[in-house]
TrEMBL record:
Sequence positions that bind ATP: 10-18
Pfam families given in the database record: Cytidylate_kin
Main location: cytoplasm
Name under which the protein is recorded: Cytidylate kinase
Organism for this UniProt entry: Desulfosudis oleivorans (strain DSM 6200 / JCM 39069 / Hxd3) (Desulfococcus oleovorans)
Keywords: ATP-binding, Cytoplasm, Kinase, Nucleotide-binding, Transferase
MF GO annotations: ATP binding; CMP kinase activity; dCMP kinase activity
Amino acid sequence: MKPLLITIDGPAGAGKTTVSKALARCLGYRYVDTGALYRGVALAAKEKGVAPEDDDGLERLCTGLRLRFVVNEDGSRLFDGDRDISGLIRTSEISMLASAVSARPVVRKFLFDLQRRLGEEKNAVFEGRDMGTVVFPEAEVKFFLDASVEERARRRYDERSADETRTLEQIAEEIRTRDHNDRTRSHAPLKPANDAILLDSTAISIDQVVQSMLSRIKQVD
Ligand code: C5P
């Protein structure tokens, strides 16, 4: 099979992470979670006290960041320099802050360059919001994975950690807010690329989504 770049975009909770990892495993490809990079910027902004509206502060912050993925026995981990920040970026506070900083062009520009470098070798599945539209418009295969808000919230609720205190309705509300932010921002809003294959996982299993993607990928090759 020739080296391919595969992109999977879609809203929060549509199953992109599970699907992207499964697809990458089946194909022997790298898996790159670009949402983690936005979360990494959000974590740094929180720790350094930089407000999401402070573009100069965000620019300085980004210049000092050393974000990189390290694949080890725990999977793909996000490091800032020597510090493993994978656990710290998975809170509800960081989700909302990531959504806020991701609307700032200065942050998008910084991560655009980083993502392009990560994609140079191809043989990768990139998951995010603007992979097929902005970062890799030349990707050989593009998917847009969606599901109803109710189904996405239910999945997040079923997978909640032991210390999660939010109700199903509160999780649904966070998803609605992030969807709204991501779809209506002026820079790289969440939307399918014109040549993306649209899939809806509301009524089908993740396994069926992966099988359907694999058959579409075989057609491209
Ligand atoms: O995918 P995840 O939910 O971890 O992403 C966190 C936030 O990062 C999203 O709500 C979105 O605002 C932002 N993001 C983005 N572009 C991407 C990936 C994520 O704007 N390619």
